[in-house]
Amino acid sequence: MINSKEGEENSSDIGTIIKIKYEGEINMSYVSVDSLVKKYGELTAVDHISFTVEKGEIFGLIGPNGAGKSTTLNVITTLTDFNGGEVIINELDIQKNRKNVKQLIGMVPQDIAIYDHLNALENVKFFASLYGLRGSNLMQNVQEALEFVGLSDKMKMKPKQMSGGMRRRLNIACGIAHNPQLIVLDEPTVGVDAQSREHILNSIRLLRDRGATVIYTSHYMQEVEEICDRIAIIDKGQMIACGTEPELVSMVTDVLTVYIETKIPLGFDRDVFSRKVKLMPGVKGVSIEGYNIRVDISVEQNSIERIIQEFIAQELPINSIKSEVPNLDTLFLTLTGRELR
What we know:
Blueprint: E1 29-40, E2 43-54, E3 58-62, H1 69-76, E4 84-89, E5 92-93, H2 98-104, E6 105-108, H3 120-129, H4 135-148, H5 164-176, E7 182-186, H6 194-209, E8 213-217, H7 221-227, E9 230-235, E10 238-243, H8 245-252, E11 255-262, H9 270-278, E12 283-289, E13 292-298, H10 304-313, E14 318-324, H11 328-336
Parallel strand pairs: 3-8, 3-9, 6-7, 7-8
Antiparallel strand pairs: 1-2, 1-4, 4-5, 9-10, 11-13, 11-14, 12-13
Helix pairs in contact: 3-4, 3-5, 4-5, 5-6, 8-11
């Protein structure tokens, strides 16, 4: 099985323009980026970015083209030097321990990095051998990586014979065959069909469940919402926000709108019911239209359970409940002033 080696973690504050404390159960960070600066001549591509990635989480890094995402990833994966700040991975300073850090990382780039003249097995074998794997250990890892991405029956097939989704999956196998503890995936589902996308996303979850720490970038907001434990938004080389999706939502609105469909009996006093619900802690507004009751409640206090109890007390049936909060697309547009694509 593909398993990540256990290591020590290092803790660090999340330094962001809008600072949010992560209050999950994990208290130690596997990746710590502190005041990272990367310049290309007069251009500052990354401007004092700080964040942490907790061990065993899927961390989403999103931003428009030119925001500094790829540069940040290239620094973390030791592909690019930087001008200022500090990057620590598994308690190792990447500038002082570059060789050891490289062994911990599996990079799956957006541009498919496989050789067309080699078949699937030969491709994965080549990339795994770059990390020092030899003999039976090499072959075992290669076979397990191909099985993991669903290509064990395509070992002899060359990339030019594969679909786009299969090539993407082979790209992932090449990046994970050496059992990295930190896996960086840059747009791994670009141009693939729905079935391959679902296979890739499930594979990423499984890697996390097996102990790997994952940094994930994508322009598909639905994917980021679906699989990421925390999300960082960067724009123009700076960190805009970092946190769980509910934490990001709380930055742009403090109201959760809930729509409750019911059947109101004849003689029911709507005004009395509305006034009673409005007096509940956290309720900001109530409106009734037909059989639909809209309640605006505080995200922080979230008194939906009390509201449901009041429906039960009034013997009002609840046919459906729907909530309305900003999705990640809306959050991104609000925080950066422009769309991701």
